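Folding follows sequence. Below is one example:
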Amino acid sequence: MSMELLLALPVMLPLGGAAVTLLLRHHVKVQLWLTILTLVAIVAVALIVGWHVTQESVLVLQIGAWAPQTGIVLVADRLTALMLVVSSVVTLCVLVFSSAQAVSENSERTPVAIYHPTYLALVAGVDMAFLAGDLFNLYVGFEVLLASSYVLLTLGGSASRIRAATTYVIVSLLSSIIFLSGIAMVYAATGTVNMAELAVRLDGLEPGTRMVLELILLVAFAIKAAIFPLSAWLPDSYPTAPAPVTAVFAGLLTKVGIYAILRLETLLFPASQIQNLLLAAAALSLIIGILGAVAQTDLKRVLSFTLVSHMGYMLFGIGMSTKVGMAATIYYVAHHITVQSTMFLAAGLVEHRGGTTNLARLGGLAKVAPVIAVLFFIPAMNLAGIPPFSGFLGKVGLINAGIQYDHPAGWMLIAASVITSLLTLYAIAKIWNRAFWQEPSEDVLENVGPTPKVMTGATTALIGVTLLLTVLAGPLMEYTDAAASSMLERTPYVGAVLGDEAANDLVYRIGEGGERVVEP
């Protein structure tokens, strides 16, 4: 098999698996094992792709042997490969976790057999978004994962879930309309939606036209990534879903938006004219999000607000448009996908043992469920950025990038980052005090029973992945540094898709003052 053909498998495997598991809707156990095998295969493919791009830079598949200008092209560089590996590992662990937990409290009225096909469709959408080499198929990937998320969000059919899903659907449709409108405008201005071609053609547009196109696409992606002030929908939507669903939503869906912003601000619009806007949005996301988390009394809502807050860290690195900042952002994205998913799985364990996630009705879990306490404590410290965990390393990398940036906006973001980290630790301490240290509540004492080993095992495995990001921080940071260099140069991506001649036409550098210089 040609190495390029591997790029089709992260999309085709889950789509094929979804079709087969739907046919096997009356055989839930067979569905489960087929889904697990599919996800294991995707992990293997992602690792092979990651190894190849490390050796060969960029991997390109032209579907049907059509030229990139007229056909569908799938592209994998270092950033894509890392996202595929991390997302496939997370989706596998979450699926295993969900196999031991009823995905619905009302299984009699809920068609639970659709869970596995829908889950695989979600995976296909995420992978399609990562691999898409043009804006329209990026849009298709978004729509596949969003359509799947609508179903997963409403499993159980409870009033709270339907209400939360209504908000989620409306906001998602709005962002999709904006994105599709932006694609139409980009095509009208340049005559293409292929991202490698756009990297060349957008340089020739008037600055005002470039800014309008960038802002429209940025708004669409910022809604999907839950960047403040376009993030109000998230804390009301995620907490109502089952724990495994919330875990994969929190870990992946917002990061697909961040991935799109990374492509937007490096490949399409390098040295953006709106850097200060990005940095301001990063600061507001950090501070407003964490203040919201501190004010909450429900575990899932606290974690949902910390999710909004920590998107600001990633936007911080993107907004600086420097190699150090981009490298730190890529590392932090990989860290946050794993740690945020782990936190929601740990919240699922707390809910399973305590019967609730309301902090006022929990207590004493450190005494009655010490294993759950440990499984919550480790990723919680990681999320708060306590050394030597990957959260600490990622934040230090971003702060170092801010120092090197040496701009008032950078120093403002450094201050916001430190304050956010301290308030995150405070929010975690509040959760620990109320849920784990106080005397056990009646809910905890009445809800006695062992936690399924599969649930604790899947959570432990994902914690192991987060710790691996710490142990392998050196090689991983070298990898993200190379990924950032390739993204900012743009020529490796453009050359792999369109050929060396097109890459030679795209020579640019970032001046000391941050200005964009294009040389024919």
Observations:
- The first helix runs from residue 9 to 23.
